[in-house]
Amino acid sequence: MLSKTQFIFSYLNHNLKSTPTNPFINFQTKPISSLKVVWRKDSKLDQAIEIDKRYRLCARVVKEVLNEPGQVIPLRYLEKRRERMGLTVKVRTFLTKNPGLFTSYYDKIKPKTQPVEFIRVSDRLKDFLEEEERVYSENEHWIMSKLCKLLMMSKDKVLSVDKLVHVKREFGFPNDFLVNLVPKYPQYFRLVGCPGEGQSFLELVSWEPEFAKSVIERRAEEESRLTGIRVRPNFHVKLPSGFFLRKEMREWVRDWMELDYVSPYEDVSQLDQASREMEKRMVGVFHELLSLSLHKRVPVPILGKFSDEYRFSNAFSSVFTRHSGIFYMSLKGGIKTAMLREAYKGDKLIDRDPLLQIKDKFAELLEEGWRVRAEQLRYHREAVNKDMEMMAMKNVEYDKHACDE
């Protein structure tokens, strides 16, 4: 049976043989930037982003309330932040459509003012927050290793704290990871400067060999152990159905796949930025970053914030279309999002991060509220229909009585 890599080479060779070659063209001399691949829409992967849209919106509103003192806020104050939160309906309408998240009560903002409506977290949401803390605690080592890996892949083994805070949602870091997690591991982390002032950094104190293996390297080791045959680390290429590469690009990809895999944890300071080897390393870094992310996808602008730290080229986003068998770049919602193809089957995420338990629990909370609201609407419709039937019967009786007279 052919290995995955052999299958890819067989596919590429078959397609190359079907096209006459030109001996006067040397594709290896062409610069990488000149190799173009037309972007092709993948409806299934776009749908995977759309499915999470409602959950992300609810999470933003919850976060807004949790960040308030005492985790309470006047309803009218929250309404003023509607645009910032991305709400397209009034806050009261949102609360009606998503019961179970908050409860409301009346109180005075100041001693001499009239009482106004406040909202606070519900008991069910409090239970979820306790469950969230438990999941974070159980997976603390995994979170710590992710943070180490992000630092170990960077060229100077240091990252801006502001940037790490900006990507904490993508990688599943808890809100307080700088305060409660980082100080627990002084053997790995050193915090320099003051967080919040724009000039603070997280440094790697010591190199951990256990963390310096990429997902691809671990996968090759596992395949070698199971088969007893040495498997070279390489990318799993899964071209979309109906996708076609021009002959020039097929030949380049075939030769590029035969290059040795460059680990994202290797020192590549000696590599030419425009070389095929550097391209292999950059693809490896993106593959590892997306593998470490919660949903195996990250908005391209967020990845771009780390261009200097991870040695990305200025035109790094073209990598996602040039290697369409490894990545997909979604344009859903007007935002470019890089996705890892192998992590999905259709629109379902199959490579699940252990921290996704938190999202699953939050989804259960939301869906229970939606079921309750659906039941209430059903009972209301049934009551209205029953009232209308009774009124119709009374009208018939009235008309009959009038005719008898």
UniProtKB/TrEMBL annotation:
Pfam families: PORR. GO terms for molecular function: RNA binding. InterPro entries: PORR_domain, PORR_fam. It comes from the Eukaryota. Residues 41-370 form the PORR domain. This is PORR domain-containing protein. The lineage of its organism: Eukaryota, Viridiplantae, Streptophyta, Embryophyta, Tracheophyta. The gene is LOC115969888.
